[in-house]
Specification:
The structure holds two protein chains of two kinds.
Chain A: H1 7-29, E1 39-45, E2 58-63, E3 69-74, E4 78-84, E5 98-105, E6 110-112, E7 117-119, E8 125-128, E9 136-141, E10 146-159, E11 183-199, E12 209-212, E13 218-222, E14 226-231, E15 234-243, E16 256-261, E17 268-273, E18 278-282, E19 294-296, H2 309-313, E20 317-320, E21 326-330, E22 334-339, E23 348-351, H3 360-365, E24 375-377, E25 383-387, E26 392-397, E27 402-407, E28 423-425, E29 434-436, E30 448-451, E31 457-461, E32 466-471
Parallel strand pairs in A: 28-29
Antiparallel strand pairs in A: 1-32, 2-3, 3-4, 4-5, 6-7, 8-9, 9-10, 10-11, 12-13, 13-14, 14-15, 16-17, 17-18, 18-19, 20-21, 21-22, 22-23, 24-25, 25-26, 26-27, 30-31, 31-32
Chain B: H1 11-25, H2 34-76, H3 80-96, H4 102-105, H5 124-132, H6 144-148, E1 181-186, E2 191-196, E3 199-203, H7 213-218, H8 232-235, H9 249-267, H10 272-298
Antiparallel strand pairs in B: 1-2, 2-3
Helix pairs in contact in B: 1-2, 9-10
Classes of the chains: A mainly beta, B mainly alpha.
Family (chain A): Belongs to the phosphatase 2A regulatory subunit B family.
Organism (chain A): Acipenser oxyrinchus oxyrinchus
GO molecular function, one term (chain A): protein phosphatase regulator activity
Chain lengths: 474, 308
């Protein structure tokens, strides 16, 4: 290392040093999820009861952009937001816990009188907006209506009104002898959620996804056959940008299953279909994006053809990588990583639970084959995660080509207990500690998972509980 | 071809389960889920396809068996002496000609064939015969050289008084084996027709192939009497629809006609008379013949389901 003579030179050296230090720190922060990282139990939220109330079933989980807030939506139309406590200065090794920050009723059950249909209040998706001021904003949607919620803190209140008592009763004006100026005084923190916008009546079919654009001004919402583009400020109008409804509904062959905007190209979005294809569209090409720019499709393996081929090839979730170069799709049995520059086939395929392929008949009978699993990337796109049955969830380390199966259960819920990798034995011989396919509990399914944008903290939703795991800090 | 090895349920159970799901979805909270019902309709379609294929194969097998029995009974009534003369003449004619003689390539042989079960077709004609045999009213002919070959066994020795040269893959007809004759067996009406210099003769029924051998070949064709060339099978999948169609009668007629026209182009004018005389009456009849049988057995559950 050269010693430079003038002050400027020395400064430059220091700068590069600090840069490399911070780089290595951030890498280790959101590092691999394979064998390098040991996952520990951190917290579990929700009732311990085995008897699950339908309204408590978690239907969506989402971290905000900083990872400080974690939102969940449930079948009862409620949204619960957890906030991470600031790191304890006395215990720098321990990451802050997530505690309830706000709870509110986002959607109520509605009745469509024209069609004689009940509209479920279940929250299908929550998407956070990036923070612009002190308040937080999120979009939540049920089958028909999207709402923009403002979550704000109030820690001061005005005191000293002239015409009002402290408890709110009005004073008799004749008793007022002096005037004073009301002042703000500190109070206990109160978190308020208020609906700022309601985006309604734009979807004939059930909304399955919403996605905020990187311009932070527009967002899209998709139902089975259409994709609409909204402006966050305008509620009475939306633009239809994709419409795959056939002229004759009897000719329907596929539906839209998931949609997402590109993380940094505000003109690009993708939508996946029930036929296992993904279409990438560029909004600059035309107003109506029925004609795709790219079509991602992998030819079907004819030797795997079965009665249920169409069902298991249907894509349940699509997610762009944070860097925007890749996208990940989840179908019933696998996770596929696609390079946006290659349409012919995925660059990586990971089998989530291939042992279920021989059980498709029974899974069809009990409706499990229709479960829509989600998937997520870690902060630096090196690891992907998705859920499975028996409260198992799987992580695939792309770089190290390793995968691990973990379980979210009350039994392994001791504080900072390291999670033991699980294994399912597909064949006849069952080794010790392995679980046979037939003893898997298909009622315990992990459909929704989320990964902190920077840290190795994950939120895993079982039926009605939310588990938070983090990596073991040494 | 759908791999059903993994499925513990048979097609019919799947169909009833699927119908139940569609019915239940109409009363589920939140309204009909389009995606789920679309997927269920795909299972329904696949199960129905599979069930129909199995049904046709079964029906065809039954037909084969009936034909064998019918023809065997009729053979018993024939004069064995006439047969021997014809066959000797045929052998002489055929064997005197070189293998490469163009005449041999003509459809002058008399053997009627149902699909060749064990033997791969060596010539285009044999190939076509193998594929065409499945069609309801297809007329097939074997090569002369096959007739002349020594055979290890005679299929229908048990049914017939005399043994006569038979190919080791298929049948021979009872009628004379002349090099300038073409004899055709109509599989549905059991009518044997001989075309001689453009002159049609109606002969007695020929002996079809042994039933046991036929099914092995038939598995190759999804629709039994309706599929012809193997490449037609993938095209013959029904449209992916949310509702189900009834059986594909009109399509079957097209298959038969196209199949015959293929034969015509290869075999030359010999078939023209056959086609013109039989096409109108037999083919359309056969198209419906098979379908009526099948439809009757399928029952109400094949009726169209309109979900939305």
């Amino acid at each position: 290392m050269l010693l430079v003579e003038d002050g400027l030179g020395i400064c430059v050296v220091h700068l590069s040093l600090s840069l490399s230090l911070s780089l290595s720190l951030s890498l280790s922060g959101a590092g691999g999820g394979g064998n390098d990282v040991q996952w520990c139990f951190s917290q579990v939220k929700g009732a311990i009861d085995d008897d699950v109330a339908e309204a408590d079933i978690i239907s969506t989980v989402e971290f905000n952009h900083s990872g400080e807030l974690l939102a969940t939506g449930d079948k009862g139309g409620r949204v619960v937001i957890f906030q991470q406590e600031p790191e304890n200065k006395s215990q720098p090794q321990c990451r802050g816990e997530y505690n309830v920050y706000s709870t509110f009723q986002s959607h109520e059950p509605e009745f469509d009188y024209l069609k004689s249909l009940e509209i479920e209040e279940k929250i299908n998706k929550i998407r956070w907006l990036p923070q612009k001021n002190a308040a937080q904003f999120l979009l939540s949607t049920n089958d028909k209506t999207i709402k923009l919620w403002k979550i704000s803190e109030r820690d001061k209140r005005p005191e000293g009104y002239n015409l009002k008592e402290e408890d709110g009763r009005y004073r008799d004006p004749t008793t007022v002898t002096t005037l004073r100026v009301p002042v703000f005084r500190p109070m206990d923190l109160m978190v308020e959620a208020s609906p700022r916008r309601v985006f309604a009546n734009a979807h004939t079919y059930h909304i399955n996804s919403i996605s905020v654009n990187s311009d932070y001004e527009t967002y899209l919402s998709a139902d089975d056959l259409r994709v609409n583009l909204w402006h966050l400020e305008i509620t009475d109008r939306s633009f239809n940008i994709v419409d795959i409804k056939p002229a004759n509904m009897e000719e329907l062959t596929e539906v839209i299953t998931a949609t997402e905007f590109h993380p940094n190209q505000c003109n690009t979005f993708v939508y996946s279909s029930s036929k296992g294809t993904i279409r990438l569209c560029d909004m600059r090409e035309s107003a109506l994006c029925d004609k795709h720019s790219k079509l991602f499709e992998e030819p079907e393996d004819p030797s795997n053809r079965s009665f249920f081929s169409e069902i298991i090839s249907s894509i349940s979730d699509v997610k762009f990588s944070h860097n925007g170069r890749y996208m990940m799709t989840r179908d019933y049995l696998s996770v596929k990583i696609w390079d946006l520059n290659m349409e012919s086939r995925p660059v990586e395929t990971y089998q989530v639970h291939e042992y279920l392929r021989s059980k498709l008949c029974s899974l069809y009978e009990n409706d499990c084959i229709f479960d829509k699993f989600e998937c997520c990337w870690n902060g630096n796109d090196s690891v992907v995660m998705t859920g499975s049955y028996n409260n198992f969830f799987r992580m695939f380390d792309r770089g190290q080509k390793k995968d691990v199966t973990l379980e979210a259960s009350r039994e392994s819920s001791k504080p900072r207990a390291v999670l033991k990798p699980r294994k399912v034995s597909a064949g006849g011989k069952r080794k010790k500690d392995e679980i046979s396919v037939d003893s898997l509990d298909f009622n315990k399914k992990i459909l929704h998972t989320a990964w902190h944008p920077q840290e190795n903290i994950i939120a895993v939703a079982t039926t009605n509980n939310l588990y938070i795991f983090q990596d073991k800090l040494n | 071809m759908i791999n059903t090895m993994e499925c513990a349920m048979d097609a019919q159970s799947l169909i009833s389960i699927s119908l139940r799901k569609i019915h239940n979805s109409r009363t589920q909270r939140g309204g009909i889920k389009l995606h789920k019902n679309l997927l269920v309709s795909y299972v329904l379609r696949n199960a129905k396809q599979f069930y129909m294929n199995e049904k046709y194969a079964e029906i065809y097998r039954m037909q084969q068996y009936e034909e064998v029995m019918t023809v065997c009974n009729e053979i018993q009534e024939l004069n064995p002496l006439d047969l021997a003369e014809d066959i000797a003449e045929a052998s002489g004619d055929c064997c005197s000609q070189g293998a490469g003689s163009p005449l041999l390539m003509e459809p002058a042989s008399v053997c009627c064939a149902l699909p060749a079960s064990n033997h791969s077709a060596h010539t285009p004609q044999q190939q076509l015969q193998a594929t065409a045999a499945c069609s309801a009213a297809a007329a097939l002919a074997l090569q002369n050289e096959e007739v002349c070959k020594e055979t290890n066994s005679v299929f229908f020795r048990s049914c017939c008084a005399e043994a006569y040269p038979v190919t080791d893959c298929d049948f021979s007809s009872l009628s004379a084996v002349h090099c300038n004759k073409t004899t055709v067996l109509d599989l549905d009406t059991h009518v044997v027709t001989t075309v001689e210099s453009g002159y049609l003769h109606q002969d007695c029924c020929a002996v079809p192939c042994q039933g046991a051998q036929a099914p092995a070949k038939k598995r190759k064709f999804d629709f039994g009497c309706y599929a012809t060339e193997s490449e037609e099978v993938p095209d013959f999948t029904p449209c992916k629809r949310a509702r189900f169609e009834d059986f594909y009668c009109p399509h079957s007629e097209q298959l038969d006609t196209s199949n015959i026209s293929n034969l015509i182009s290869i075999f030359g004018s010999g078939f023209t008379g056959l086609v013109s005389r039989q096409a109108d009456s037999e083919f359309s009849l056969n198209g419906q013949f098979c379908s009526k049988q099948t439809l009757a057995s399928l029952g109400a559950w094949t009726r169209a389901i309109v979900a939305f």
